[in-house]
Design goal:
single chain; alpha/beta; 5-stranded mixed sheet; 4 helices; 35% helix; elongated
Length: 115
């Protein structure tokens, strides 16, 4: 019997607001092409980096991704600090786009400040 493969598309936030160091590259190393099998289905992660500008442009949508991951360190913490206080139009669109992604059924994984 041929096994069916299910690709799980994971968008990983890649921008570091404050220039802090982070281990964001480790998420790709660990997750990209990681696979497991259950009930004759092979599940495999495919990771893609996304930037703040791509999020504002609507790149985060359930048609393109299954899950959105916000690492900790410079990526998640920097965003948590700056996006919490900035009230610009771009920041508002950024937040609404991610919220809509989750409302539409997309998964969200936030670590440390990204939570």
């Amino acid at each position: 019997m041929d096994k069916k493969e299910k690709i799980i598309r994971v968008a990983i936030l890649s921008d570091e607001i404050l220039g802090w160091g982070s281990g964001k590259h480790y998420f790709h190393v660990i997750l990209d092409n990681y696979s497991w099998e259950s009930d004759d289905i092979i599940y495999r992660f495919k990771t893609i980096s996304v930037s703040d500008d791509e999020i504002v442009q609507g790149k985060i949508c359930v048609d393109d991704f299954d899950t959105f991951l916000v690492p900790g360190g410079g990526v998640g913490d920097g965003h948590a600090l700056t996006k919490a206080v900035l009230l610009s139009k771009k920041t508002t669109i950024w937040k609404k786009t991610i919220a809509q992604f989750v409302r539409d059924g997309g998964g969200y994984i936030g670590i440390c400040g990204g939570a």
